[in-house]
Design brief:
By secondary structure, the chain is mainly β. The protein is globular.
Length: 112
């Protein structure tokens, strides 16, 4: 495995559902901290979503590993934010046999 270049600062966020008082909820995102990452884009594709086209770009985001019980360890259904860009985390795996890094398989959706 090549050593990742952790040169992108990303904010890790987790969803939090707040009751709206009418039986539903409002989803907000809670900041869990900042991580340095190596972001690699895969091959993108387009698909129709309602009345518009969405570009879907798969990503491999590598971060330093942390213990499984650490609140700053990325998990599926969380997301990374970089300014206005959002990267939804789909899966997380150890990137190397020594467990020094984690690979987060993520997806960025961009409306066109």
């Amino acid at each position: 495995m090549r050593r990742p270049v952790l040169n992108r600062q990303l904010t890790l966020e987790k969803p939090q559902d707040i009751p709206d008082g009418a039986g539903g909820f409002t989803r907000t995102w809670v900041n869990l901290g900042t991580l340095w990452a190596d972001v690699r884009a895969g091959t993108g594709r387009e698909r129709a979503v309602e009345s518009m086209t969405a570009s879907m770009i798969p990503l491999k985001i590598t971060v330093r590993a942390m213990p499984p019980d650490s609140p700053s360890r990325p998990k599926p259904d969380q997301r990374f934010r970089s300014g206005a860009r959002i990267f939804r985390i789909l899966a997380v795996a150890e990137a190397d046999p020594a467990a020094r890094y984690l690979t987060c398989f993520a997806q960025e959706e961009v409306s066109a």
